[in-house]
Amino acid sequence: MIRLAFTIIAGVVLGLVVHLVSVLALPRIATQDAYSRLTPMTKVNAVTQLPLAAPNDSPMPFMDPAFALAICRYDLSGGPIKLTVPVSQAYTSVSFYTRNEIAYYAINDRSAGRKVIELDLMTEAQHSELPEDEEVTAADRLIIDSPTTTGLILMKALAPEPGLMPQAQGSLQAATCAPQTEAPAKAEAPRRR
Questions:
Q1: Which of 17, 36, 72, 124 makes an SS bond possible with 177, Cβ 3.0 to 4.6 Å?
Q2: CA nearest 168: which of 87, 53, 81, 50?
């Protein structure tokens, strides 16, 4: 009887270990992840608008047909990027994902509190190299630290009615995701007389 109980317990524990390992390993070994699917249709550090979701033809699974979508596939190895997304009439959100599809930050138009969602995306090392500027506050400049050098930025604009989809798409067409061209301003030291 003890052998039977031990065999059953060992089988359950082995099954749990195999299940856990396969669930954790699957995202890393999958060949058709979001990054791989979007690579042929997007440019690096540029906004690409995705076609509208259709029942039989959509670039990504489970796309909501009420949202216009745009993607920025970023690479921070050349430096930080600046993201600017105009707010649509109904609702706009921006989500950040690593290369392995791990979400690490999201912001929407209500939390941004402005007509344009504007932020700088950089690695922690690039952020630590920025000069301290007492005149620039966190409210003036939103800086997001990416845990990886490559990933995806997903921009969504809601069209509450089908007739408002062109407006939602228009707000995403005006979005930009480009490397920073200007170096951050350094605080000048006071001059002595």
A1: 72
A2: 87
Query: pTM of the predicted model, to two decimals?
Result: 0.75
Distances (CA, A) of 13 to 25, 91, 95, 123, 158: 18, 47, 37, 40, 46
From first to last of its 193 residues, what are the pLDDT tens digits of the chain? Answer: 889 999 999 999 999 999 999 888 876 676 677 788 888 888 999 999 988 877 777 777 778 888 999 999 999 999 999 999 998 888 999 999 998 888 999 999 888 777 888 999 999 998 888 777 655 555 557 889 999 999 999 999 999 998 999 999 999 999 999 998 765 444 344 444 4
The DSSP-derived string for 118-144 is EEEEEEHHHHHTSPP-TTS-TTT--EE
CA Rg value for the chain: 22
- Please report where in the chains the tokens 């930009």 appear, as a residue: 176
Give the pair of three-digit tokens for residue 22. 């396969």
For 171, residues 6+ apart whose C-beta sits below 8 A from its C-beta are 68, 85, 86, 87, 88, 89, 92, 157
